[in-house]
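call fold(seq) -> tokens
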Amino acid sequence: MTWVLAALAVLNLAAFAAFGIDKARARDRRRRIPEARLLQLALLGGSPGAYAGRRVFRHKTRKQPFVAQLHTIAVLQLVAAGVAGYFVFLR
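ret:
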């Protein structure tokens, strides 16, 4: 269980950093991190880090359909966590 929490912490840190790096590259007009990679980090478990990065760096806050895709990933993760919690703790 500890390794799962450590992996999630690393993923969230990576997602947060990726948003910061992408924002800096956007300002400098350099090669960007693909949106698919940012969404992939969120999908793998880095949604909180992605949301924190969006807020702190004010990055990708109005870009559609990116925002909708990120919200969809987060909702699916919440549902999956709820279902997993039900089977682990309530059954």
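Helices lie at 2-27, 35-57, 66-90.
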